[in-house]
Design brief:
Layout: H1 2-24, H2 38-44, H3 53-64, H4 71-90, H5 95-106, H6 113-131, H7 137-165, H8 171-176, E1 179-183, H9 186-197, H10 206-209, H11 233-249, H12 265-283, E2 289-294, E3 315-320, H13 323-332, H14 335-338, H15 343-355, H16 357-363, H17 380-388, E4 399-403, E5 409-413, E6 422-425, H18 426-429, H19 437-440, E7 446-451, E8 454-459, E9 474-480, E10 490-495, H20 511-517, E11 524-526
Helix pairs in contact: 1-4, 5-7, 6-7, 11-12, 11-17, 12-13, 12-15, 12-17
Organism: Pomatostomus ruficeps (Chestnut-crowned babbler)
GO molecular function, one term: K48-linked deubiquitinase activity
EC number: 3.4.19.12
Length: about 525
């Protein structure tokens, strides 16, 4: 009788404990069973493990003594107890099965921020409490499951932070693209400043520091890059010409509709990436390119005869030896050039290093030349470096040798092959220089215009303009100046079948017309209702 009462109390206690597990199995995993004594564990699993010898002998006694008058009642209670134990085993609230299943049920809640951190802290606390107790087989199993769960939480967090890490150049991405990166040092920074300004004590002007390759928002001029202040116009005009090359002639369609001059933001940004890649790859001899990007902190301590400007000291130099890697890397970091704030400086440094400082200096007619002149203006050497990949000092074809008469020969270096982008100069109109056909007749009908110490862009939508004489009889040229606060499209019609009447000395002729007539002599130019730029 005492045994039957005890069995009844045991089964009722187990039933209550099973109901408690049923109420809590859908919330935070409960590991409190591990802290129970072995006797309580026996109550939880009466059909599996019976560590207590006293309890096991007491339970076996009714089965082995048929002389007991309450044998029938004991068997009935034992069967009832076993059936309830089997029901509890099928429920998710008992022992190791309870913790395992409750973990599975609560797994979707791990992905919420605060709840996930709270559960992870509770798991760590539980682990520390468990480590102080005697390890039983069930507690060891719980600990293994717990460790697996912690590892899984860490993996989920890694996946969630991947998007944030991709905002900066990733080392794994660089190795995948075969990009080699290194920080700039003070000796290289001094050489750059000597090449740019003629002295390591000079710095970039404010006009350069605030200039990037930001596009125009006026619908008719969405292809255009806006220049904020005077100074880096040569760099901006060269990049503008290369962007137009990508925008107009990247595909096989030779003649374009004017609507192509209204690209989407994504398309014009893609054209900018391709244009920068072409400039750097050409300067690197079609073998390599270096992209200079700011790191946000100094890479060396300025000492000696060096004046810090807050830009060169922060640069990381990324070197690519495959054009495909260069394209992808520039697309990933194009915001540094388009939004800035110093994208113009980054490109200038990148094109110099892609060519190499020694080769740039050897391109000069005079070794003491520099790339940025007085008032922060670009020299012809810098413009030629961007257009042709070589920082030569002249715009005529090939090389001219000057004999001084005493046996010394001075070599003047010019353009050695037909350029993708051309150049027209007002200086040629005044017989100050001569522009060779390699620049006058480029591969694409796009020209930089050098007029009044300023660079702008002139281009045609017809690819055949330079190869078909019929296309060159009458055609339209579009003009864009990023510094002129231009608010409308400027389209000029050039007619070479007529001869422009000779102008009188008092006539005001736009300098742009003089530049155009250095290429199409005597042509009649119609501004199509736009007020001429004088």
């Amino acid at each position: 009788r005492r045994l039957s009462k005890r069995s009844t109390s045991i089964s009722s206690t187990a039933q209550l404990r099973g109901e408690e597990h049923e109420e809590h199995d859908l919330s935070v995993p409960d590991f409190q069973e591990n802290k129970a004594s072995p006797t309580k564990s026996t109550v939880e699993f009466p059909s599996k493990t019976l560590p207590s010898s006293h309890t096991s002998s007491a339970l076996e006694k009714p089965r082995n003594s048929p002389k007991d008058p309450d044998d029938f009642l004991s068997k009935l209670l034992s069967e009832r107890e076993r059936s309830k134990a089997e029901e509890r085993k099928s429920l998710p609230g008992s022992g190791a099965d309870s913790s395992e299943k409750s973990l599975k049920v609560s797994a979707p809640h791990r992905h919420s921020g605060a709840g996930r951190e709270k559960k992870e802290r509770s798991l760590r606390k539980t682990e520390s409490r468990l480590s102080g107790h005697r390890k039983s087989p069930t507690s060891t199993g719980h600990r293994e499951d717990q460790m697996k769960e912690v590892l899984e939480l860490v993996d989920v967090e890694d996946e969630e932070t991947t998007g944030e890490v991709n905002k900066i150049p990733d080392l794994s991405t660089l190795s995948l693209l075969q990009i080699v990166s290194k920080a700039i040092d003070i000796s290289l920074a001094k050489e750059l400043k000597n090449l740019l300004f003629g002295s390591s004590l000079c710095c970039f002007s404010e006009e350069w520091k605030i200039q990037s390759f930001t596009f125009n928002n006026i619908p008719q001029l969405k292809y255009g890059i806006v220049q904020k202040k005077g100074g880096p116009c040569g760099v901006l005009a060269a990049v503008q010409a290369c962007v137009l090359q990508q925008l107009l002639f990247a595909d096989s369609n030779r003649n374009k509709d004017p609507r192509c001059l209204q690209p989407s933001e994504a398309h014009r940004t893609k054209c900018l990436s391709s244009a920068l890649a072409d400039i750097l790859w050409r300067a690197g001899g079609h073998e390599r390119a270096i992209v200079a990007l700011p790191s946000g902190r100094q890479q060396f301590t300025p000492t000696g005869k060096y004046k810090a400007d807050g830009i060169l000291e922060t640069l990381i130099l990324h070197s690519a030896t495959r054009f495909e890697d260069l394209i992808v890397f520039l697309q990933q970091n194009i915001q540094q050039f388009e939004v800035g704030p110093c994208g113009c400086i980054l490109l200038t440094v990148s094109v110099i290093l892609s060519r190499s400082i020694n080769l740039v200096r050897n391109d000069f007619d005079v070794l003491t030349n520099r790339l940025i002149g007085s008032h922060g203006y670009c020299t012809q050497e810098l413009v030629n470096l961007l257009l042709t990949g070589k920082a030569v000092s002249n715009v005529f074809n090939n090389v001219i040798e000057l004999d001084s008469g005493n046996g010394n020969i001075t070599i003047l270096k010019g353009i050695t092959s037909r350029s993708d982008i051309g150049l027209l100069s007002l200086f040629e109109h005044y017989d100050v220089c001569q522009v060779g056909c390699y620049l006058k007749t480029p591969k694409f009908p796009i020209w930089l215009v050098c007029s009044e110490s300023h660079f702008s862009v002139l281009f045609c939508l017809e690819r055949d303009l330079l190869s078909d004489w019929r296309a060159g009889r009458r055609f339209d040229l579009y003009y864009y100046d990023g510094l002129a606060n231009q608010d409308e499209e400027i389209r000029l019609t050039v007619d070479t079948t007529q001869v422009c009447p000779e102008s009188k000395e008092n006539d005001l002729i736009p300098p742009l017309e003089h530049c155009i007539r250095t290429r199409w002599q005597g042509a009649v130019i119609d501004w199509n209702g736009t007020e001429p730029i004088l």
